[in-house]
Every structure is written in C-alpha cells, then in structure tokens.
Amino acid sequence: MKIKSLIFKVPEPELKIRKRLTIYISEKHSEIIFAPLSKEINAGYDFEQEICEIIDLKSSTEIIGEAFKRNFNKFNISENKKVSGKINDWPALQASKEKTKVGFEKNYSRFNVDGLTEHNLFFEIKTALCYPIEIELTTTISSACENSSLGQRLLRLYNCDICDKKK
After folding, report:
1. What are the angstrom distances between the C-alpha of 112 and each of 70, 140, 161?
2. What is the pLDDT of residues 145-157, one digit of tens each?
3. For the chain, which has fewer Cβ within 10 Å, the N-terminal or C-terminal residue?
4. 84: CB partners within 8 A, 6+ apart
C-alpha cells in the first residue's frame, strides 16, 4: 500500500497593524469630524483619507460611539500614495465649516485615537489640544465597549475641566 505524501502550505501571516483615527470637535460649529487614517506601507507615514464623516455635536452618545467605531475600522494600508502636504489637500479642513488653517485650528479640538496592540483590543484616546498649560490627557477604553460608553468617554474628555477651551 502506497501512502501519498501530503504537502502542507504554511498560511501567510495576516498583517496586524495598530489602527488610527483622528477626531476634530468644534463647539462653535456644533460638529464632530471623524477623519479615518491610512498608512503608506513603504514610507511608514499616516495620512487622512479623502472622505471624512461629520455628525452633530449634540448627537446621542450612542450615535457618537457608533460613528467612532465605524471610522476607526476604515483604517487601511496603501502603497505608493503620495501626499502633497498642501493645506488645500487636508481632508478634515475641507470637510469643516472653516476656510483657513488658522480658523480650523482655533475652532476645532483634535483627538488622536490609537488601537492598543496589533489586535486593537483597546482604544487609546489622546488630546492634542496644545493648551498653554502643556497637559495632554489620555484615556483607554475597550474596543468591545458599548457605543454609548465610547461616545460618553469622548465627550467627557472633550469637556474635561482641566482644559481651558480656546477662545
């Protein structure tokens, strides 16, 4: 009796990468802009995708959390993407109600979101507010949390008492 030899092909390892998202909140314009990011795999830099999602700041925490997760999962990898670096090509600025970079930076607070570990089991949300007191805040929450808890955590970070809002 002959036994056929079996050839096993080792599966290619799945590319695991920490996802990222940038969120801009404006009290003046009462809106939240979710700017999903992409990573240029060859050069290693991140950039905002062309399409940003805008929701009302007064939306329920459930809707805010849902939009957060949806846009976080839009993170992707691209190859040979050239980014011009021109202000006119900044997707979040184009999506906003501001016409200039100065106006945008004055009226929108920025939050950076990173997935912790290559499985993105937790969200790390960091302020990027550049306040004169030079204190940046960070919070961590499970990516499996309820949408309303996630929305509430983002708004609590935005409304925290330690930060003087830019006027």
Report:
1. 15, 12, 19
2. 999 999 999 999 9
3. N
4. none
